[in-house]
# Entry
Amino acid sequence: DAGVIQSPRHEVTEMGQEVTLRCKPISGHDYLFWYRQTMMRGLELLIYFNNNVPIDDSGMPEDRFSAKMPNASFSTLKIQPSEPRDSAVYFCASGRLSGAGETQYFGPGTRLLVL
Amino acid sequence: GEDVEQSLFLSVREGDSSVINCTYTDSSSTYLYWYKQEPGAGLQLLTYIFSNMDMKQDQRLTVLLNKKDKHLSLRIADTQTGDSAIYFCAESFDTDKLIFGTGTRLQVFP
# Structure
């Protein structure tokens, strides 16, 4: 299995532009998580899905952020309009409940820089 | 409440043992995890322990759990330069999500 795939790996954009981050989870996993990592705030859970349905979006910073999961093999995180404070590494992770509880597998991340 | 705390930095000499500590506040946690993040990469699951266990050993890794004190530790024996990374502890309980700690940056010097 190729693991969790994220694209793009790097994104540089100007303030006010729309940014779309993409994620392909591991096949067979029914949970998908979006995280944001910064030096100041550490690792933050933004939103997660179970069977393509959003379960908890309490970590989404504000209305500029939205996430969708139209099917089991694809999810997007959109920021519109983007701001410099959105600069961070965004991780997607997928997982499933098993005998080891909730094990999550992380993608390589998208490094976003908003100028 | 949900809060997982770790010390920020740890520096050890190559060949020595490293001990990374973690405290959590939710005594109902069922599983506790250790993840490793290498530079420029995502988090990778290292090991996990079920809450009814006190210890788990996996090659160079030893996980100790003290439920009374809500304390979790990860010991790395014979630490190598390749072990330099950020280590996160995490807990899960009845919800589907993990609560991650702040991460401990381990630096191994020759």
Summary: The mean pLDDT of chain B is 91. DSSP finds no helices and eleven strands in chain B.
